[in-house]
Amino acid sequence: MSDRAVTGHPPADQETDVIVVGSGAAGMTAAILAHDNGAEVVIIERTNKVGGTTAVSGGGIWIPVNHRMGALGFSDSRAEALTYLNQLVMGTTDPKMLETFVDTATTMIKYLEAHTPLVFDAMTATDYQPELPGGKFGGRSMEPQPFDTNLLGEWKTRLRPPSSFSFPLTRQEAFGEYDAFYRPWLVPQDLAADRMMKGIVTIGQALAAGLLKAVLDRGIPILLESRVRKLLMEGDRVVGVEGEQAAGGKMSVRARAAVILASAGFEWNPRLQAQFLPSPIESPNSPPFNEGDGLLMAMEVGADLANMAEIWHYPSLMIPGETYEGRPLSRPTLAERNGPHVIWVNAGGRRFANEAANYNSLGRVFREIRTDGPVFQNLPAWAVMDSQYRAQYVLGTTMPEDRDPPWLIKADSIEELAQKTGIDSKQLLATVEQWNADVRGGRDSKFQKGMSRYDQSQGDKEATFPNLGTIEKAPFYAVQIHIGALGTKGGPRTNTRAQVLHVRGQAIDGLYAVGNVAASIMGPGYPGRGATLGPGMTFGYIAGIEAAREAKRLAPKVQR
């Protein structure tokens, strides 16, 4: 079947052992493991590009007790990892799922390093709540080394392009060596230019590209522009999929052993958002094709659901006119929330959170309801800063030396800024005055911004206080903050073998789910950078092995 892997459009009507729906890291990991364990595999991808949400992501992979962290001076243990995770999930996850993840994650990474072109490094990035028991000040988050996309041949053009993360640096380089998010002008331009010219990619693109290369090397066919709409059933068993291709033809593929759903979440589906989420996602950070196809198919065959009200929060900026795949582009915030000389306020003029907290915890605060009615009290939200911030730090796509963009609200006084934004003027002035007093005292008395090692790691390391700075020098600025999300966290409930569970408790034969299409094992929590991809790839690894085992079990009973 290797000849099919270079066309992107294999025959639409066929039969195979294992079908993988989706081509992100979780799906491609599952396909690789199923193939390597003896199964015949087909990947079906809705769009004309490979890589899914992975390709536009930061590419971090949260892997506790990994084999690289010791080189950075960090240590870890199974007990510490589970202690940390069990606090974050707040009783929402079966402990066996967490144990399976911790026990398998490093095995998965080592396998990919041994059997694909990918090489992974541990990062110095802290856990997102490192002061909790079991938390770590670095080493658990991993990322791929830069990858040469020329190794993909003609498939180089089929790799999903980045959205807002487009600079060719690893995360360790960006946050560590060069401090690129606060001082991008210090990044060696010859390094960036050389990588871009040579087609060398990093972070999520590197991860997707390395897995794609492994898929191509194995001759695993990929059906592009093929949207799966329905699971085929025989009795209580899933035996294939149906859908349509972009050219207009119908598609039907039979699975002798298993269908593995890896088709992402439902953050771009307004109806499903309204049905399951307590607040809207204004600006998803993922490709606009994540509309819950896998969720709907799983529901149709009786899947139990879990974690449906949760999302991977990421408060974001939306710059007018910027788009990705024809939809408004969402830009995750960094210096705009973590840096000095900036605070976030609601329309009432009050701060409502530690702005430098991890983005998931910060995003959850947007869901708070006012006591006097069904209104979100922190929407709209605004980042408020002064000329000290503007002269030093990046703001969206605007560098300090750039002219003020038309979307940035500017005023000569706090009162004028309040008038232009609709923020309560008296309260905003009081908030800024209290903030300035706290900064001069070296401590945020309201939300303890800058007290956590995580906060400090995300701030300006050259400043007196990495996350604190007065807002007192005109002109003053404001930009609206939106509820962003890397994806949704809810979906079909799965077991330790990545099998989808029926509402009555038993596994649905022949059906697996991995990645953001499945209910996240992280519940409401977010342990550290890469907490989406780490479990997604780990359970993808498990699903691939289990599906291949099922293919062998059923082999005598089917006609080859």
TrEMBL record:
Residues 17-533 form the FAD-dependent oxidoreductase 2 FAD-binding domain. The keyword Phosphoprotein does not apply. One of its GO terms (biological process) is steroid metabolic process. Keywords: FAD, Flavoprotein, Oxidoreductase. Pfam families: FAD_binding_2 (PF00890). Coiled coil: none annotated. It comes from the Bacteria. Its cofactor is FAD. GO terms for molecular function: oxidoreductase activity. The keyword Oxidoreductase applies. This is FAD-dependent oxidoreductase.
